[in-house]
């Protein structure tokens, strides 16, 4: 009876290291690992020991007999990956070399800015070094970044990764300062006087804007804002979202767009027992939104969502997912995602519905005082318009075209990629081409907003390896102050958002 990796896989590779027969692929040392949409168990070599089940932080692995009907597609997805992949495997999973730290009078002290996945994986790695100390500075009153303020509330298993982060947080070498914003409450210089190094794990907090006429009308909102609203982020919790219209349009078709479409169409009672913000749940209970159109500029073969998320959306109870046959006609054959799209109904019928639309580029938002309709131009499947337009009536427009990093005052910033320039995690000043001493990056601010929670693990391990090399080579000056010298006065969030991330009922 083989085990099966399901939708909530966060790709951190824990199962790979636990598996005694190396039947889970791709492995973190494989170039495909960073691009993989999930990990896959080979049913022909799985020995059914269950070691991967215990290792998985988000309960994504199940014996195939325990799959729900909505998860059954994953049996084939796991098996097919191995059938098509067909590469020779090493007999055992790779063992990562431990960090080697040269003895120094002063044990390593590192400040980490942010407490999302990248920060927590970096802390975990540093704390494998004897006597090392980590101080985490997080601007919000609660830790773990997008695991709390991004991951959809109904993705309960994915959110369980925070239990693993709780475990890291309990390490005696780690001190967490919540409600402290670096750049506002304390400075980069202050952190560097009290630590050997500072790692920035600040994520990508803003969006790429949609620059078309009318995009600033009331009723147009970015995915970052809407997601933060339903997850109770203190900066967005007080927002009012107008859900009094029948139809909403989402521009962009990545996993975040799918999350939003699902949250807006699900039976609100299915969300009642989640960590959704109480105000968002109340708004969804009176919502009149019944139909979501997800519009993408290119064809279905370029869909940005991943296969596991499409499988999950197609299995959502009470919601019909549809795609027009004419949108699929020109798409190539053979891809599992396209195969699944071809199996969807051509029209949604009645009830709550989500339509996946393709080859439509937004051109104008229409409305006098608020969004009333979106004008889209048909494209040829690339990014070129055909001159033919289509107008879709809608009262809510959500732009979901990508998250983006924001600059930090003390550090260089690449405005094109929205990242901090770096070489393998060492921050580089582009004006001199030199490393900024003692300054490192991990996660989305290092690589851009791509990959899953677990992708940040390898990313953080690589940066920490560079940091330790610099420490061993005496390239990091000894701190001259104690970490207690850093200003950690409580920020105002605590008072303003006492109910943040509490259960809805
Ligand atoms: C809407 C959404 C849903 C997602 N769902 C999934 C999913 O279901 N499964 C999955 O595997 N991946 C998911 N992801 C991807 C995953 O969340 C990211 O890979 C991951 O969170 C990136 O980690 P990070 O640490 O780089 O950034 P973040 O998680 O954004 O963490 C950055 C942290 O830094 C803090 N910070 C920022 N600036 C400062 C400052 N100046 N001082 C102090 N603190 C600061 C922020 O408050 C935040 O806590 C999702 C992403 C989004 C946007």
Automatic annotation (TrEMBL):
One Pfam family in the UniProt entry: Pyr_redox_2
Residue ranges occupied by any 4Fe-4S ferredoxin-type domain in the UniProt entry: 1-29, 37-66
Protein EC: 1.18.1.2
Catalytic activity of the protein: 2 reduced [2Fe-2S]-[ferredoxin] + NADP(+) + H(+) = 2 oxidized [2Fe-2S]-[ferredoxin] + NADPH
Annotated InterPro entries: 4Fe4S_Fe-S-bd, 4Fe4S_Fe_S_CS, FAD/NAD-bd_sf, FAD/NAD-binding_dom, Ferredox_Rdtase
Keyword NADP: yes
Required co-factors: FAD
Source superkingdom: Bacteria
Keywords: FAD, Flavoprotein, Iron, Iron-sulfur, Metal-binding, NADP, Oxidoreductase
Enzyme class: oxidoreductase
Signal peptide span: none
Name the UniProt record assigns to this protein: ferredoxin--NADP(+) reductase
